[in-house]
TrEMBL record:
Source domain of life: Eukaryota
Keyword line: GTP-binding, Magnesium, Metal-binding, Nucleotide-binding
Protein name: GTP-binding protein 8
GO MF terms held by the record: GTP binding; metal ion binding
Organism from which the protein derives: Gopherus agassizii (Agassiz's desert tortoise)
Gene3D superfamilies documented for this protein: P-loop containing nucleotide triphosphate hydrolases
GO cellular component: mitochondrion
Amino acid sequence: MLQLQRLRRLAGANCLLRRHSATWRSSPQNASFAEVLQLEDKKLTGVVFPLQGLERYLAPGVNTASFRTFSPSLDDIHRAEALFKPSGRHVIDYFSSAVRMDHAPQLSQPEVCFVGRSNVGKSSLIKALFSLAPDVEVRVSKTPGHTKKMNFFKVGKYFTLVDMPGYGYRAPQDFADMVEAYLQERQNLKRTFLLVDSVVGFQKADHTAIEMLEEFGIPYVFVLTKIDKASKGLLVKNVLEIQDFAEKHTQGCFPQLFPVSSIEYSGIHLLRCFIAHVTGNLPMMNS
């Protein structure tokens, strides 16, 4: 709590920041973490730690230890955000695309990739992650299967983020060859983020993707998208079911889920921090 109060005082000392934070509710895509700190405690928890914000909807006795497996301090999250802000010497931008591994750029810096069913909200999520770098072009379409290539985005010298084509409905014809080769051959891949629609939960295609990641021994984590579109009851139900599945039936899955909303930007700050951590760019202060 003292840490939170200190960060709020630092943020509140800047009058320009206060003017921007007053408009945060109408323009969340422009909100920095310092501005989010201006929110009241309950709202702040829901925006930064949405999984913990669900605890009051759970039945007594439900084990929520996995909700805090990744528990960065507010200072950690604030530091991680700097990686997603471009500057003169820190360029964040689209780098290249590839339809086959022999076309993929040979990069040595750490890499993370995002995979999921067509229309799960993958491109919208990546756009939200890069919201502090508005010049980065992430194409978002209402048409399922819009992404047909592996799209590489360089975050300065620190890491690369890869947007993979969606699987399932309208997946590219050569999806399996493209993605399987990437997952098996990419030596600098640090974590795969598997997106699941929080409204509908697991689908058959998701289980196929999980089996592939488990077979290849790829470390991965579940990201639950579109939490703004799910009722609290449905969201809690799907969270518990997916959490139970991860605990009982997976080996390479990180035990904590990451619920996010690309519209309200809930969970985006925590996900940025996790990316910074798994790519080796954020030694945790409290670890």
